[in-house]
Amino acid sequence: MPVGRSWPLVLADETTVELRPVRSDDAAALADGYQQLSAHSAYSRFHTLYSELSPTQLRYFTELDHHDHEALGAVLPDTGEGLGIARYVRDTDDPTHAELALTVLDAWQGRGLGRGLLDALAARAREEGITCFTADVLSENRAMLELMRRAGPVEMERDGDTTIAHLEL
C-alpha cells in the first residue's frame, strides 16, 4: 500500500477513481463532502445530524498520524472531488483492534466504492499490526452491515438501535 501516494481503483462500472491518504489540507473538501450527504447518510455515519462539521471535527478527521489514526479518501482523478472516506482509529486498550468508519457520497453508493475503500483500509491496517475492525453501525444500515459480511469473518451483536460488528482482517 503506497504511503503518502495515490493509486487507482476501478469500480464495477469501470470508472477509475483515485485512493489516497487523507491530508490536513483536505479539511475544506471534507466539509464540502459532508454538506453533500443526504440526511440519512449523515445520520448513518455519525448517529446524529450536524448542520456542518466543526473546525475541531475537521482537524480531528484530517490531522492524522497515519499509524494509530488512518484515513483513506477516494477522489476523482481529474478534479480531486471527494467521493468517500474510510478511517480507522486504533483501540488504546488493544492495539490489534481499531474502530472503523466509512462514508460514501450518496451519488457514488452502490458502485463498489465502499468495498474498495474498506479493502484498501484493511490492507493499510494490517501493515500497522491491526487484526480486527470494530464498527458501531445503526442496525437499519443494511448496506454497511452487508459490506462487512462480504469483507471477511464478522461477528455481530445487536445492542438496541445499533449493531456492533467485529471484522477479522
What's this, in brief?
The protein is globular. Helix content is 30%, strand content 32%. It is an alpha+beta fold.
Structure description:
30% of the residues lie in helices and 32% in strands. By secondary structure, it is an alpha+beta fold. The chain has one domain: Aminopeptidase (3-Layer(aba) Sandwich), CATH 3.40.630.30. It has an 8-stranded mixed β-sheet with strand order 1-2-3-4-5-6-8-7, sandwiched between helices. Helix 1 packs across helix 3.
Could you outline the blueprint of secondary structure elements for this entry?
Layout: E1 7-10, E2 16-21, H1 27-36, H2 39-46, H3 55-62, E3 69-75, E4 82-90, E5 97-104, H4 113-127, E6 132-138, H5 142-151, E7 154-159, E8 162-168
Parallel strand pairs: 5-6
Antiparallel strand pairs: 1-2, 2-3, 3-4, 4-5, 6-8, 7-8
Structural features:
Aminopeptidase, alpha+beta, 8-stranded mixed beta sheet, 5 helices, 30% helix, 169 residues, globular
End-to-end CA span? 15 Å
Helix content: 25-40%
How would you sum up the major sheet?
8 strands, mixed
Radius of gyration, taken over Cα atoms and rounded to an integer in Å: 15 Å
Sum up the overall morphology in one term: globular
CATH superfamily: Gcn5-related N-acetyltransferase (GNAT)
CATH architecture label name: 3-Layer(aba) Sandwich
Mean pLDDT: 94
CATH topology assignment: Aminopeptidase
CATH class: Alpha Beta
SSE succession: EEHHHEEEHEHEE
Strand percent estimate: 25-35%
The total beta strand count reads 8
- State the strand order across the main sheet: 1-2-3-4-5-6-8-7
Number of domains: 1
Number of helices: 5
Low-confidence stretches: none
Class by SSE composition:
alpha+beta
